[in-house]
Amino acid sequence: MEKGFDTEKYLKEQTKAILDRVSKFDKKLYLEFGGKLCYDGHASRVLPGYDKETKVRLLKNLKDIEIVYCISAKDIQNGRIRNDFGLRYDDQAVKDIEDLREHGLNVSAVVINLFEDEPAAIKFKKRLENMGTSVYIHYMIKGYTNNFKLVVSDEGYGKQEYVKTEKPIIIITGTGGGSGKMSFCLSQIYHEQKKRVNSGFAKFETFPIWDLPLDHPVNVAYEAATADQGDINMIDPFYLKKYNKIAVNYNRDIENFSIMQRIINSFPMKDSFISTYNSPTEMGVNRISSGITNDVVVREASKQEVIRRYFWYRQQRIYGIVDQNTTDRVKVLMRKLDVAINDRKVVESARKAAFDAAKEKKGNKNIYCGAAIQLDDKRIITGKNSPLMHAESAAILNAIKELANVPDNIDLLSKEVINHIRFLKKDILNRVSENLNVEETMIALAISSATNPMAAHAVKMLKKLNGCEMHTTHILRNGDEGGLIRLGMNVTTDSNFIIAYNY
What we know:
By secondary structure, the protein is α/β, with parallel strands linked by helices. Helices cover 45% and strands 14% of the residues. It has 20 helices and 14 strands.
C-alpha cells in the first residue's frame, strides 16, 4: 500500500498542540474527542499510513489523563449501528471501554446524555453498573437552543449530575456524533466555575480537516461518513469574519457556536480563556494536516471511501436503519468527486463471479453468489459459493493460496474436517444449509494446519488480508460479516438477499 501519511510526525505536532491548550487553564481541560478513539478505521482508510491506534498512542503521550465516555439515550433506544464493527451503539460502548482499559487507559465514568426515560437506556445503565462502571444520567434540557437563562442555571446545567474528575486532561469520547459530548463538557464547566475553578474546553475533531480546501476529497469523505446525520462541510463564517481567512468546519459546529458563545458568556467567570474563542475552528486543536505526505494518495483513498460509504448505507437502508435520503446524499457526493461504483474494482469482479457461477450452474441450491478481494499488489481474487462453502469463504481461501504460492490443485482444508462441520450444522443444529461461512472456514483451516504444512503456511497469510478491499454480491450473514471484520477487510456488498436462510 502506498502511504500518504506520517503518523510519527503527526503525533509530535498533535501532542504539543494539546499541551499548549492545557496551559491556558487552571490545569483542567475537557477535550472533546470526535470520531473513533480506539480504532479509527475511517482515518486509516482516507489517510493511508495513519495507524488505526494513533489516538490511543496520543493519549498515552499526554499521560496524565482520564476518560469520560458519552452515549446518547436516543441512540441506545433506536439501536443505532456502528459501521466498522457492525455493533449496536450500546455493545460498541462496552467494547470501547474494555479496549481502552486493555490499553491501560482509565475510563472513569459513562454519561448517558439526552435521557428521557428510554427503557433501553435504563437497561444499559444497569448493565454497565453490573460491570463495575460508574454511570451518570444527563437529562434532555427543554429549550436547549433558545432558553439560555434556563440552560445556564441550577435548573439546567446545574441539575445535571456532576462527574468528579481528578486529572488535568479529561478526554470526552463516545460512540459517535450526537452523543452529547459538548453539552456534558459545558455542564461540567458550569459546575466548576461556580466553585471559581477556571476549567477549559477544546475540541479534537480529526475531520473535516480545517486547513484543507472545502472540496478536498478527504473532507468530502467526512460528509459521506456522516451522511446519516446530515452533516455538511462549510466555510467557518466566524473565522472568515475575524481573520479574513478560509477555514473548514461543519454545519452542526457552526450552528452550535452561537449558542455555545451565549452559554459561555452567561457563565460565572468572564475572564476564562474559553471566552476568547471567536469561532468553532479556534476551539479545535487539530493538526492532522501536518502528517499528510502525499496528497495524491490521500485524494484517491478518500474517493474510494465515498464509494464504500454508498454501499454501506445502501445495506443499512435495506435493514431499515437509514432512509433513502442518506444514500441519495452520498450519490451527490460521488458525482461531486466524479466517481462511480465501478471505480471500486472489486465490484465488477464479484458480480462477474456470480454471473459465471449461474452460467456454469456451480452455486448452491440455485443461489449464485460472488465475492472478490483486491490484494495489496492490486491482484483481484474471486470466489463463488458451492455446497461446501460461501462465496466469501472461497475468496478468502483462494486469496491466501495465491499469497502462499499454493498450487490451485492443492486442497487446504481436510475433507474430513469439512464433512464433520457440515454434519454438525445440518444433522445436529438443523441448519438449512451446511456450507461453511468465513468463521467456520477459518476454524477448519486452523484444524487442517495441524497435519497439512501447506495449510499451516496459508494460515499465516491471513494477516496480509488486513486492509484489503472486498466486495460481495449478496448480503452478509453473521458468520461471514464477523469473520471479515476480524480479518480487518474493507467489505462492501450489493446487498442482494439470499432466498434460503443461511445459504
